């Protein structure tokens, strides 16, 4: 690591920039030990990514410890579908209260008709049209 004074940075910014871009870390000394370290944007982004990854890994570790301590709740698809009638706030409150949920079946959300609040479309609504219907539409 190269150490420079603030005045050196002011007087020869290009030299400092070239050092940093070549991979060198530059320590800028300041009064009262309020020093700075200059690094490239690439190196900063790598450090930010590592910090973000560490936070994510901590969440995964917490989840793994909950499983190891049997602090999870398994619910059936019927129970999960019953949750579907809740608002998103109620759903998040339910999950927070139960800590976690697990299922081996895929989650199929209910399909609401937008602004209408009750009816939902059956899954068959999104199936391909029969061949005769497609021919009637000229396809």
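Sequence proposed for the structure above (139 residues):
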């Amino acid at each position: 690591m190269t150490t420079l004074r603030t005045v050196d940075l002011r007087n020869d910014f290009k030299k400092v920039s070239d050092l940093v871009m070549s991979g060198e870390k530059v320590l800028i000394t300041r009064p009262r030990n309020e020093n700075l370290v200059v690094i490239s944007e690439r190196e900063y982004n790598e450090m930010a990514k590592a910090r973000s990854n560490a936070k994510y890994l901590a969440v995964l570790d917490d989840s793994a410890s909950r499983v190891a301590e049997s602090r999870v709740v398994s619910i059936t698809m019927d129970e999960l579908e019953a949750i579907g009638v809740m608002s998103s706030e109620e759903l998040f409150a339910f999950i927070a209260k139960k800590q976690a949920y697990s299922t081996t079946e895929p989650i199929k959300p209910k399909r609401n008709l937008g602004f209408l609040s009750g009816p939902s479309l059956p899954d068959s609504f999104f199936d391909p049209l029969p061949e005769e219907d497609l021919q009637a539409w000229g396809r």
